[in-house]
Amino acid sequence: MKKTVFLLGLVMVFFACNSKTDSSKENENVNEELKVQTIDEVVANTERNVGNTIFVKGLVTHTCEHSGRRCFIENDDESLSLRIDAGGDIKSFSKELAGSIIAVKGTLEENRLTNEYIDEYEAKVKAKEKEEDIEEGGEHCSAEISNIIKMRKWMKDNNKDYYPVYYITGESYEVVE
Predict the structure, then answer these.
(1) What are phi and psi of 87, to 5 degrees?
(2) Spatial distance between the Cα atoms of 131 and 154, rounded to a whole number of angstroms
(3) Chain centroid to CA 80: how far?
(4) What pTM value is reported for the model?
(5) Which terminus of the chain, N or C, has less C-beta within 10 A?
(6) What's residue 142's pLDDT?
(7) What is the widest separation between alpha-carbon atoms in the chain?
(8) Residues 6+ apart with CB under 8 A from 73
């Protein structure tokens, strides 16, 4: 009987030690995944990271003037940008952040624009263009039409029936530089 209790105790200690090792490995993986990433790294792994908490660093190029509830950050060569929505501890983004590099902690989100949505959007843009009768040179509308063409090309090239728009719902941020 004593031998059985002793062996049972050893088995329990063995499993307890192994489960501690496994959880410490999980913590290491979490810490690795939560390192500050560049915008390029985030964009390269969007599908895998949607819904996950990430840290990203970038140059603030714009903050929304009226509410301050959004800002946009760019990568080093200005070829990629991400929208950051205020959430968590972030009440708003100050316009003084423009030109600063910030590190943001937040959840990567995806909004899928369907063909139907893009069709409706294009119809509105074209109707607006006719109403304005190109008084302003039509630059705003032509930029929107250009974006719609790019969305449709991406959908065709990637064999998708939607166009993904990725953004981050921020929890907190800090000015890095």
Answers:
(1) -165, 180
(2) 29
(3) 12
(4) 0.70
(5) N
(6) 75
(7) 95
(8) 39, 56, 57, 58, 59, 60, 61, 81, 82, 84, 102, 104
Burial 144-176 (b: 16+ CB within 10 A, else e): beeebeebeeebeeeeeebbbebbbbbbebeee
Q: The dihedral of CA 72, 74, 78, 79: what is its sign? A: negative
Q: pLDDT per residue over 2-33, tens digit each?
A: 333 333 333 333 333 433 333 333 333 333 44
Helices and strands in the chain, H and E counts:
5, 6
**Mean pLDDT of the region 61-66:** 89
Report how far residue 78's alpha carbon sits from residue 18's, in angstroms, rounded to the nearest whole number: 47
- Tell me the CA distances in angstroms from 150 to 41, 104, 167, 173, one per residue in order: 22, 28, 18, 32
The two beta strands, 53-63 and 36-38, are parallel
CATH topology of domain 34-175: OB fold (Dihydrolipoamide Acetyltransferase, E2P) (2.40.50)
Per-residue pLDDT averaged across 37-62, rounded?
Answer: 94
d(C-alpha 54, C-alpha 106), whole Å: 6
Question: How many residues comprise the chain?
Answer: 177
Which of 171, 15, 169, 166 has its CA nearest to residue 80? 166
State the average pLDDT for the chain: 80
| Structural domain spans, the chain | 34-175
